[in-house]
Write a structure and sequence with these properties.
The chain contains eight helices and 13 strands. It has helices at 90-109, 118-152, 163-167, 172-195, 238-261, 285-288, 295-301, 308-317, and strands at 7-9, 18-20, 35-43, 46-53, 67-72, 76-80, 85-87, 155-159, 198-202, 226-228, 235-237, 265-267, 276-278. Strand 5 and strand 6 form a beta hairpin. It binds zinc ion.
């Protein structure tokens, strides 16, 4: 690497030669020891060097007592439990159309059983570049939306969507949204850790069907946009109702965990942050079975994902209640 850290030359016989740094970030700040690995990747539009930097990022967060549930959707990117929405950007549609067009072009130029023509390879490269562009737009958007949410909230509950079910879907628009949701939740977890904000995944069952006020089951088809409860008369946007259910699921889970782990905190000595961590085994088996399975297991066992003592602190500070009943109003 050059002294000003603007260039890297590979001396181990790798044929790529010298790469120039073209980035918003400067590598000058990191010592050679902090950069533990360099990896070169080849994408549709060139070679890139990735630097793995050992760096603990921590940001200040001003806690305001804001709690929210979010429902990830197709129409809006997400709807929160206050009924606010974040849109899917319009350029996604444009990119999607272009992707379809380029895909058709590639298929048309494909010759079965023969050596492919130059025209085919050209079309194939154009398609690969468009895929790259779409994935960059998506990544960028996922990161920005996640950061904005983490900055404005202290506790965020979202649906733990299973990637396995998602991959099965062949519809293009749907598969693009699935990928965005996944990236978004990954960024959400990352930023939450950096900002000390709590993020909880809950299992995705019945969040659309249940009435967020009285709990009655209100069946809907995919095209029913409004939730109208016959039992209690609640009328809400479909996604708003789902977001409220997601938040209340998060509450149920937290109430269960906080109540069953009180007095059973297990201390770990490594982290400089709060030291409490509930142990999975300290929860009575009877109650353990009532905690929904999924990613939740993971954060119960792994203090990296959720520091519960912080939750306890915030609960006292903002007199948060985690009612085990649906939310009305
Ligand atoms: Zn109702």
């Amino acid at each position: 690497m050059s002294a000003d850290r603007r260039q890297i030359t590979f001396t181990d016989g790798f044929e790529v030669g010298t790469l120039a740094l073209w980035s918003s970030r400067d590598l000058v700040w990191y010592s050679d020891q902090a950069i533990s690995r360099v990896r070169v990747i080849r994408l549709a539009d060139g070679y890139y060097a990735q630097f793995l930097v050992d760096w603990d990022r921590e940001e200040e967060h001003e806690f305001q007592g804001e709690m929210t549930g979010i429902d990830l959707g197709l129409k809006e990117f997400y709807t929160d439990s206050d009924g606010d929405t974040v849109e899917n950007p319009r350029y996604f549609r444009k990119s999607e159309r272009r992707l379809k067009m380029l895909q058709r072009r590639v298929s048309k130029k494909h010759v079965k059983g023969k050596k492919q023509t130059n025209r085919y390879h050209k079309a194939r490269k154009a398609l690969a570049k468009q895929h790259l562009k779409v994935s960059r737009q998506r990544e960028d958007r996922a990161r920005k939306d996640a950061l904005a949410l983490v900055r404005s909230k202290d506790l965020i509950v979202y649906e733990d969507l299973k990637m396995r079910n998602m991959v099965k879907n062949h519809h293009l628009a749907k598969s693009i949204s699935n990928a965005s949701w996944y990236q978004f939740t990954q960024w959400l977890k990352y930023f939450a850790r950096v900002h000390g904000v709590i993020v909880i995944p809950v299992p995705p069952h019945y969040t659309t069907v249940d009435c967020s006020c009285c709990g009655a089951k209100v069946k809907k088809t995919l095209s029913t946009r409004t939730h109208k409860c016959i039992k209690c008369g609640t009328v809400l946007d479909r996604d708003h109702n789902a977001a409220k259910n997601i938040l209340s699921k998060g509450f149920k889970l937290l109430a269960l965990i906080l109540n069953s782990t009180q007095g059973h905190w297990e201390s770990g000595a490594k982290s400089s942050k709060a030291q409490f961590r509930p142990s999975w085994n300290s929860i009575p088996a009877r109650k353990r079975n009532r905690i929904p399975r999924g990613e939740t297991d993971h954060w119960l066992k792994n203090r990296d994902v959720l520091v519960l003592s912080q939750l306890d602190e915030l609960r006292t500070k903002f007199s948060w209640e985690f009612p085990a009943r649906p939310l009305c109003g």
